[in-house]
Specification:
- The structure is a single chain.
- By secondary structure, the chain is mostly helical.
- The protein contains 15 helices and 2 strands.
- A two-stranded antiparallel sheet has the order 1-2.
């Protein structure tokens, strides 16, 4: 059984992590249009620092955290068995597969329409193949992300998670035989990096399996809270340093150590959020909309960026940095308002496209 406090703390962090993912996809200071790239190719040092600190630093915690959480929740609460697995498989078909298909099909239709209409063609880069020329197998590959990202590229997370769910029996037995060997092997592959598969990604496999280990052994996912101070002392200077030096000078393993430390710090911050009644109430009220914001922020974010850059043509770092914050904020605010109305008017539909999440 998952402790109630731990379950609530996981709910508290869902929305902040989704905001992080939106900013992760908002990193570039320019956009690609049919008339060429617009924006600042070489941002001012301060703008570059802020963009890198948030999008390439703080926000990078979100994806591995969600995989860790997913593995933990899948394996915690009941002893693994064939019956339990089949029940959870049926549940994940509703919470993962159906929303995955809906949002990819919707994105495919939106992109196809944008490519076909002269009024919207100017906002496209022209680098992507025309969907009108897709063969049946191309549609399948675009929707399921076979040999590529899904057409809704950010849903690669759901694709990888579904694969890991299918592999859950193998993960269970590998954890049972020798969790140390499994997790060490995956950690080495992640840090090296050395991984022979396109999907699931190595970070997906590592953190899902570690979450599975914690859940199946009955450990609390927040058991590392006691190390938060040392993690913060290491994480803060590391993420700041990585945001100052050129990316080419940052070793890949160093960035991954930073991400791991950031996850542990983020976990502890949920304890502080749970102790602040107003913060707790706000985050819990936003938690239910988290999946909708995640699923629908693209291509809405890209469209918003392209329209803003096309008509505002930011050439100063002040305007560019302002747009960096304003566009995601406007997109998220619109999504929250839209979801609230959708859930009020069509609760069944809103539930189906968000995997039954409330």
């Amino acid at each position: 059984m998952i402790p109630r406090e731990s379950s609530q703390r996981l709910d508290l962090i869902r929305f902040p992590l989704i905001v992080g993912i939106v900013f992760l996809h908002n990193y570039e200071a320019k956009v690609a249009l049919s008339v060429g790239d617009m924006g600042i190719a070489q941002p001012h040092q301060l703008e570059h620092f802020v963009r890198t600190l948030i999008s390439q630093g703080l926000a990078r915690v979100a994806v591995p955290f969600f995989f860790l959480m997913s593995g933990y929740l899948f394996f915690a609460g009941a002893a693994f068995s064939r019956h339990v697995y089949l029940n959870k498989l049926c549940t994940r078909a509703r919470t993962l597969l159906l929303p995955f298909l809906f949002w990819n099909l919707l994105t495919l239709a939106v992109v196809a329409l944008a490519q076909a209409l002269p009024a919207t063609q100017a906002f496209l880069s022209g680098n992507s193949a025309a969907i009108a020329g897709y063969r049946p197998l191309d549609h399948v590959a675009a929707i399921f992300g076979i040999g590529r990202y899904p057409i809704a590229y950010h849903l690669w997370f759901i694709r990888d998670l579904m694969i890991l769910v299918l592999l859950a029996p193998a993960i269970h037995y590998a954890n049972k035989i020798s969790a140390a060997v499994l997790l060490t092997t995956l950690a080495v592959c992640w840090l090296a990096p050395a991984w022979p598969f396109d999907a699931p990604r190595t970070d997906a496999a590592l953190f899902f399996c570690f979450g599975a280990f914690l859940g199946s052994r009955g450990y609390d996912i927040f058991l590392f809270d006691k190390f938060w101070a040392i993690c913060a002392l290491l994480y803060v200077p590391l993420v700041v340093y990585h945001s100052i030096v050129p990316e080419s000078m940052v070793p890949l393993y160093s960035r991954k150590i930073e991400v791991t430390l950031g996850m542990l710090v983020a976990m502890f911050l949920t304890k502080r959020a749970a102790a602040a009644p107003r913060v707790k109430e706000l985050l819990l009220s936003l938690s239910g909309a988290s999946f909708f914001v995640y699923a629908s922020h693209e291509p809405l974010l890209t469209i918003s960026r392209k329209v803003a850059y096309r008509y505002l043509a930011p050439e100063s770092s002040l305007l560019s940095l302002s747009l960096y914050f304003m566009i995601p904020a406007a997109v998220i605010a619109f999504q929250l308002l839209f979801y609230r109305r959708l859930a009020a008017c069509f609760p069944g539909f809103a539930s189906a496209i968000t995997g039954g999440r409330k």
